[in-house]
Amino acid sequence: MSESEDDWLSLMPTEPLQSQCCGSGCKPCVYDVYQKELAQWEEAKAKKDRSLLTKQKEESSNSELNPDTFTAFKISSVEQLTEDTYQYKFELPGNSSLGLSLGQHIVLRGMVKGLEVQRAYTPVSPVNAEGYFEVLIKCYKAGLMSQYIKSWIEGDTVFWRGPFGGFPYCPNQYGELIMLASGTGIAPMLPILQYITENEDDETFITLVGCFRTFENIYLKPLLQDQSRYWNVRTCYVLSQAS
């Protein structure tokens, strides 16, 4: 039985909404993924072969990151750091690693009132962390994604895709690195910092300047204090509302 035009139109991929783009310059962007899926659909329609569409996967549950499709990860713990900032830990099977390179970020997908929203976050866990990864997230009162994130509890399943971006670095490539970070902007600095201090042969000196509202609002203080004990690490804080 021949398939009607309506049958094929029902299988046509939907163009992403503006809210589905995280705005971080990801490659591939959601629009790149859409163009790829549209080309697959057009080829399948022209050949009248639906099997060509099986290459498209909207979701995966094998805990392996993919820049084109979203993968399910389970939240293993939620830790509130300040009144509006949380650290989320996600499970990875066995001793597997997320497989990120330095400076790479991943994209979160959320649904708020029927609207799909995507935002980019950089894991704060070491790039070689096994069995887990951690993300630092600040929630905003009027933020669409924040409304979704604030509903998370331990055991929930969340969808991520990636990785994207990166920071090309070789040990001893520079004599000194100066890291300037404000608030949660410290997230992409931490894996780089830990990568350097874990390598005894890397003698790069690091100056980390963190900008926060108050001393209480400094994120991940125990980790930063541990890192500052290394001979080649110096940390200092700029507080905008210090009493």
TrEMBL record:
Flavoprotein as UniProt keyword: yes
Record key words, sorted: FAD, Flavoprotein, Kinase, NAD, Oxidoreductase, Transferase
InterPro entries associated with the record: CBR-like, Cbr1-like_FAD-bd_dom, FAD-bd_FR_type, FNR_nucleotide-bd, Oxidoreductase-like_N, OxRdtase_FAD/NAD-bd, Riboflavin_synthase-like_b-brl
Enzyme Commission numbers on file: 1.6.2.2
Signal sequence coordinates: none
PROSITE patterns from the UniProt entry: FAD_FR
Record-listed FAD binding positions: R119, Y121, L136, K138, M145, S146
UniProt keyword Phosphoprotein, yes or no: no
Catalytic EC class: oxidoreductase
PANTHER family: NADH-CYTOCHROME B5 REDUCTASE, NADH-CYTOCHROME B5 REDUCTASE-LIKE
Similarity-based family: Belongs to the flavoprotein pyridine nucleotide cytochrome reductase family.
Protein name: NADH-cytochrome b5 reductase-like
Organism the protein comes from: Platysternon megacephalum (big-headed turtle)
